[in-house]
Amino acid sequence: MNYRSHNDFLPGGQFPVLHFNAARRGYYQLIQRFPQSPLVPYAYLAFGELFVHESQTDPSKLALAEQALLKVLSYPDKTPARRAALDRLAQVFHAMGDATKAASVEDQIAREFPSRK
User: Is 1 part of any domain?
Assistant: First the structure.
């Protein structure tokens, strides 16, 4: 696989995931083969997005989405992946019925990204 830039891994149609298993395999290969790559947080973000999508038919996948999104947050840089992971994590916590955690993440977003409206 050719990993050109972080845009290859952003959600929202920028990387059309037509075959979830192939995408999952590619993200896993990136993480395993190039663990120091700056693209790894985007791979975890993509995993989170895949699990959120799968949670529409299997709510237990929300826990996996949470784990993947928290992994993005384990990286110190304030990349677009971090912001997207925080936004999605708040949504995941709302979907899980945990308004307290969702509010905490929303507060974190406001602190880390004060220009957010």
Answer: no
CB atoms within 10 A of CB 76: 7
Structural domain span for residue 40: 6-112
With beta carbons less than 8 A apart as the criterion, state whether 37 and 30 touch: yes
As a whole number of Å, the CA-based R_g of the chain is: 14
What pTM, to 2 d.p., does this model score? 0.80
Looking at the domain assignment, is residue 59 inside a domain? yes
Q: Tokens in use for 24?
A: 């999952």
Question: Is 18 inside any structural domain?
Answer: yes
d(CA 35, CA 27): 11
Percent of the chain with pLDDT over 90: 65
- Model pLDDT for residues 26-73, shown as the tens digit of each residue: 999 999 999 999 999 999 999 999 999 889 989 999 999 999 999 999
Structure token pair of residue 102: 């969702």
